[in-house]
Amino acid sequence: MINYLDERVSNLSKGMQQKLQFIISIMHDPDILIFDEPFWGLDPFNQQMIKDYILSLKEKGRTILLSTHQLEEAENICDRFVLIDHGRVVLDGTLEKIREGFRENIIIVESKSDLKLLQNIHDINRMTIKNSIAFVELNEEKDINGVLCQIINAVDVVRIDVNKPSLRDIFLKTIQEK
User: Fold this and answer.
1) What's the longest Cα–Cα distance across the chain?
2) What is the pLDDT of residues 96-118, one digit of tens each?
3) Is 61 within 8 Å of 71 (Cβ atoms)?
4) Hey, where are the domains in the chain?
């Protein structure tokens, strides 16, 4: 930034302007910070640098309000979320609390085995296979633990995960339902 001391702010690149605004907002070490799209216009390296600094401020007990369309970054930083659509609050709470209302009984299975073997499991409602990954949708009332055991016995599992919808997925589903 020292190279740009005599430069007008309007002549700086968008990324450089963004970094300057960030520095100005934190230089007096406030207890409460409000960031509006802090990652906009930044390359991945500078996005990570800003994110790391925001997380360090959070660890120091600062209150941070983050307005962003980059919901993946918000998931990694925020403790509480308010999703707004056309000026109206459509979701409010912690990520886990919000996810409770959008739970999908989907298990993600990665295997080197033939994933079509999973079709023999009765509790599966629907399954989609892409390359070596199966997206297994369970019947609503089924116990996930029992199905997990059946999957492990049916194929050689490389990775298995119970799908948790992302904040982005939740937001899109909420808006589409309206």
Assistant:
1) 71
2) 999 888 877 888 999 999 999 99
3) no
4) 2-78, 105-162
> CA angle, 91 as apex, 88 and 96 as ends, to 5°?
165
Rounded to a whole number, what is the distance in angstroms from the first to the last CA of the chain?
46
Separation CA 140–CA 136 (nearest Å) = 12
DSSP string, 21-64: HHHHHHTT--SEEEEESTTTT--HHHHHHHHHHHHHHHHTT-EE
Instruction: Give the separation between CA 169 and CA 165, rounded to whole angstroms.
Output: 6
> What SS3 state is found at 121?
coil
CATH 3.30.70 corresponds to the domain 105-162: yes
Residue 176 CA to residue 178 CA, distance in Å, equals 5
pTM (2 decimals)? 0.71
- Strand ordering across the sheet containing 124-130: 124-130, 133-138, 106-111, 157-162
Q: Please name which of 62, 23, 65 lies closest in space to residue 46, comparing C-alpha atoms.
A: 23
- CATH of 2-78, picked from 3.40.50.300, 3.30.450.20, 3.40.50.720, 3.20.20.140, is 3.40.50.300
Q: Which amino acid is at 14?
A: K
